[in-house]
Design brief:
The protein is built from 13 helices and twelve strands. It is α/β, with parallel strands linked by helices and 338 residues long. It has two domains: 204 residues, inorganic pyrophosphatase (n-terminal core); 123 residues, Diaminopimelate Epimerase, Chain A, domain 1 (Roll). Strands 3-2-1-4-5-6 form a six-stranded parallel sheet, with helices on both faces. The mean pLDDT is 96.
């Protein structure tokens, strides 16, 4: 991959001597957020810097195992240490988000940080960093971190721990290498990481084989009772209310991937998943082909992401949010015929 030479030169200058570095990512961190942040910290430490991951909240259980996890600071568990680490850092890396309002309670302290570097693959990044590496064609932020590390001459610093974190993020954000963003370069990068000793049983076991009984029962309930199929629109809509979550002992991360079940129905072009929380409704959209769900959510539901996978939110109640979505859906589909 070709990285911007001026940004690389600036990054080399920023890292030309040992620095105190904080690496932050978005609220409700997914595999790419956790993997890229932890992978980068391993590399920074190997290069002689003092680095630490700071997250807005604790990752879900299926991501809470990667090498170095014990050193990660989460704002919801260690607020004073998390904020102090960012305030006293010489440099703040911002990974896997394109706007500062996506990092929850870390927004103000990160915005105040003088020197920030953005590494991300989402569209329309906010202009807040002194150095920006933004590539919407990349399958993951983890892939970008590997590209940057190699461009800096840091390939000797890649080891089993950093490779495990980065490979995990690549797997999760590429749908196990099946999304359209997967390229030959993606596969070569993954192969390079595997060559550093990644344990596939460890990675995929933690990602796929850590379900609780409550989560599986919630999934069954969701597909049986809360899924609506609209064949004429080639759309599937799933909605879970607060009572549904409480009844099934919901824990953060339990609904991860539920939206993909809707998209797996033969002939489906669009899947929408609504989850009601006390203060908002979270919306996840997945699509096939050239149906740009990121643009739809950006225009109507304060969201964004990628062409075929995006998230947004609504301050309406669940029923009202679904109704608004339904009112907008026909025009959106008509504007983007299959």
């Amino acid at each position: 991959m070709s990285l911007p030479a001026d940004q690389l030169a600036l990054l080399r200058q920023l890292l030309d001597r040992p620095r105190r570095v904080a690496v932050v990512s978005h609220h409700n961190p997914d595999g790419d957020a956790v993997g890229s942040s932890m992978g980068l910290v391993h590399l920074l430490k190997a290069a002689g810097h003092h680095a630490r991951v700071v997250l807005p909240n604790t990752p879900a259980d299926h991501l809470d195992w990667m090498p170095g996890r014990a050193d990660v600071l989460c704002l919801d568990r260690s607020p004073d240490a998390a904020l102090s680490t960012i305030r006293t850092s010489d440099l703040v890396f911002c990974l896997d988000f394109n706007r500062l309002d996506r990092i929850g309670g870390l927004e103000d302290v990160v915005r105040a940080a003088r020197t920030k570097v953005l590494i991300d693959h989402h569209q329309d990044p906010e202009d807040f960093a002194v150095a920006t590496f933004s590539d919407t064609s990349a399958s993951s932020t983890c892939q970008l971190v590997v590209d940057i590390a190699k461009a800096l001459g840091w390939e000797p610093f890649l080891d089993r721990d950093s490779a495990t974190c980065l490979y995990t993020g690549m797997v999760t954000d590429s749908g196990s290498f099946r999304f359209r963003s997967t390229t030959p370069h993606t596969m070569r990068t993954a192969a390079d990481l595997l060559a550093h000793g990644v344990d596939l049983d460890l990675v995929h076991g933690n990602l796929s084989d850590t379900n609780s009984e409550d989560r599986l029962r919630l999934l069954g309930f969701t597909l049986l009772e809360r899924m609506t199929v609209l064949p004429a629109l080639r759309t599937v809509i799933i909605g879970l209310g607060q009572d549904d979550l409480k009844k099934h002992g919901f824990r953060p991360g339990d609904t991860e991937g539920f939206v993909n079940y809707g998209l797996s129905i033969k002939g489906t072009r669009l899947a929408a998943f609504f989850v009601e929380h006390p203060d908002l409704v979270k919306i996840s959209l997945r699509s096939k082909g050239d149906l740009p769900v990121d643009r739809f959510l950006k225009e109507h539901f304060n969201g964004g992401g990628h062409v075929n996978a995006a998230g947004g939110r609504s301050e309406l109640r669940l029923e009202a949010a679904v109704q608004r979505f339904m009112s907008l859906l026909p025009a959106f589909l008509e504007a983007h015929p299959a």
